[in-house]
């Protein structure tokens, strides 16, 4: 009597599950970006792309870095101002 054993690759199922988990994680990480894009689109009354939303968010963060901390040393304040100007120029050029 012959004994036949069918071998299956169990790693393929694990790889597929890992890929599915990674896809879900990426979707969850992109969710706040989508919310910001929708918000910017409503405020500006036009469609805002992902790159433009990142630039607007960067400009807002750099503005707060310039305005809010009152006890920064002068060199930090100058660096924050340079960052603010750079993000504004980048946001202006992205469409």
Can you walk through the features of this model?
This protein is mainly alpha-helical. It contains three helices and no strands. Helix 1 packs across helix 2 and helix 2 runs antiparallel to helix 3. The chain is elongated. The chain starts with 9 loop residues before the first helix and ends with a helix.
- Would you list the SSEs in sequence order as H and E? HHH
The averaged pLDDT comes out at 88
Largest sheet composition: none
Strands, total number = 0
> What structural class do you assign from the helix and strand content?
mainly alpha
Helix coverage percent of residues? Answer: over 70%
* Unreliable runs: none
* Termini separation: 73 Å
What overall geometry do the principal axes of the alpha carbons give? elongated
Number of helices: 3
Rg from Cα: 24 Å
Q: In percent terms, what proportion of residues is strand?
A: under 5%
Helix/strand layout:
Elements: H1 10-44, H2 50-67, H3 74-93
Helix pairs in contact: 1-2, 2-3
Structural key phrases:
95 residues; mainly alpha; 3 helices; 0% strand; elongated
Question: What's a concise summary of this model?
Answer:
With 95 residues, the chain is an all-alpha fold.
């Amino acid at each position: 009597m012959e004994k036949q054993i069918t071998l299956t690759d169990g790693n393929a199922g694990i790889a597929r599950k890992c890929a599915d988990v990674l896809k879900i994680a990426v979707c969850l990480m992109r969710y706040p970006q989508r919310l910001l894009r929708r918000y910017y689109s409503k405020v500006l009354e036009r469609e805002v792309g992902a790159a433009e939303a990142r630039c607007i968010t960067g400009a807002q963060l750099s503005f707060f870095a310039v305005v809010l901390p009152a006890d920064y040393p002068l060199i930090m304040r100058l660096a924050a101002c340079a960052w603010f100007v750079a993000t504004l120029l980048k946001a202006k050029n992205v469409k």
